[in-house]
Amino acid sequence: MLLTVTTTRRPATDLGYLLVKHPDKVHSFDVPTGTAHVLFPDAADDRCTAALLLDVDPQRLARGGRKQQSAPESFALGQFVNDRPYAASSLLAGALAKVFRSALRGESKDRPELANEAIPLEIHVPVLRCRGSAAALFEPLGWTVTATAIPLDDVPDGHPLAGDSPYVDLTLTGTLRLADALNHLYVLMPVLDDAKHYWVAPDEIDKLLRAGEGWLADHPEKVLITRRYLAHRRSLAASALEQLDRVDPDSVDAPADTVTDEEAELPVERKQSLAEQRRDAVLAAVAESGATRVLDLGCGGGALLSGLMKDRRYTEIIGTDVSSRALDLAHRRLRLDNVPERQQGRVKLWQSALTYRDDRLRGYDAAVLMEVVEHVDPPRLPALEASVFGHASPATVVVTTPNAEYNVLYEGLTGMRHSDHRFEWTRAEFQDWAARTATAHGYAVSFRGVGDLDETHGTPTQMAIFTKEEA
């Protein structure tokens, strides 16, 4: 199977520095399913092409067949008679990750400035098994997509198998950083193939988040991408989506065994996800408070900030997070470099830890802790309470957190909803914490549920609204 990367940025042979491969040599690497070769069929000042050729060893592939998560070859000799040596798939993505490791990370010892520069690129994958629309996945990332269906050979008209094959000849053109281009391919080739040819373990979530940094959280097909990349393992997809956008497990539109991809892609009315319901509920609570200056504490990638920005009643919006990476994602998501001049300064992003007092946070009308408190170690909660409710002391504080009682309704979920959760409260535990915090800092508190109500287990998200009492 073959993949080529071409650039016309002069000197084009600098592509070799970015890929850490000399254009005058053939580079070979042993990979679990065969041998990967990197060569440069075209290396001139005005145009340079690097080719990744994966020579699959069918015997190695067959020996690893028992470990495959979802093998599409279901007949008796499927491990030996298949398209794997010829069609781009997760095997090629795995080889790409091994041989272009530095380029995927955006690192170049010899050309560091070029590694951060968007350059003209053309990616060609001659044979890619394609379930769904390549354009729908690549075009939102800035690519111009040409996906030509490959017809079946020697099949006469009228034969049941006549027509196009399930493969396409894919060409992508665009001006992007090479690292971004390679990460797009690493994730989306197996997504289009819709098969993983190795066992998908929880560490695949980290690989997806690492490769999807800066683009996957805002992709319109992120749920489909996440579900397919993680081999339709619902619990893994739920965890990945929550980390992308603080999304709870029901954000996966449907279990893979009840809704097919073909059905999921039909233009049917989509049920609002829990993340969207929660965001709308928080926005409604903040609006009801009459606030105009709002803090989003622990803003993550900026999902709530995006909603606040759209409402003109808010004259000052501050997002804080302890993670500089999260703030970078929020900055890109909100496109703060491109806001109109009259809007500049209305939204600010600050790095701040909620367990330490920060004088910048004092005097605001409302503060939101949306799916934040459960990420704090229990011994540090009193410090958060003192910092937010005592020192910053906004007029209104809105807090949401998972309802642990509801977890039994998530099929396949074991333990807590997120690997970084330090705890998850029952309704009684949350209300007890909220009542004690309100009393200690001069607030009244009321409670709401968010999401589908179960008569026994309540709602998946619980919300507390703290209102500062008059002195």
Task: Describe the 3D structure.
The chain is α/β, with parallel strands linked by helices and 471 residues long. It folds into two domains: 2-199, 2-Layer Sandwich (c-terminal autoproteolytic domain of nucleoporin nup98); 274-335 and 344-468, Vaccinia Virus protein VP39 (Rossmann fold), CATH 3.40.50. Helix content is 30%, strand content 23%. It has 16 helices and 14 strands. The strands form two sheets. It has a seven-stranded antiparallel β-sheet with strand order 2-3-4-1-5-7-6. Helix 13 (303-309) links the parallel strand 8 and strand 9 (316-321). Helix 9 (222-229) crosses helix 10. It is elongated and about 80 Å long. Residues 65-78 and 247-270 have low confidence and may be disordered. This is Small RNA 2'-O-methyltransferase. It comes from Actinoplanes friuliensis DSM 7358. Keywords: Magnesium, Metal-binding, Methyltransferase, RNA-binding, RNA-mediated gene silencing, S-adenosyl-L-methionine, Transferase. One of its GO terms (molecular function) is small RNA 2'-O-methyltransferase activity. Residues 248-271 are annotated as: Disordered.
